[in-house]
Design a protein that fits this description.
two-stranded antiparallel sheet, 1 helix, 46% helix, 56 residues, DUF2613 family protein, 2 strands, transmembrane helix
């Protein structure tokens, strides 16, 4: 029975560290900035508002 207490403490500590790690990684991976707006295409180089890529 003496071996059960250290095992339970180790398991509880591992679970707590795991939850803290998941929360920390999730908070660090969140996008917390607004993306820059895209620059619109030059109307003279577009056909019916659709930008064409490459040469014809």
């Amino acid at each position: 029975m003496k071996f059960a207490v250290p095992g339970l403490i180790s398991g509880l500590a591992g679970a707590i560290i795991g939850v803290i790690a998941v929360l920390g990684i999730t908070a660090g991976a969140q996008q917390n900035s607004i993306p820059e707006p895209e620059t619109p295409a030059d109307p003279g180089s577009s056909v019916l508002g659709n930008v064409t890529y490459g040469s014809r």
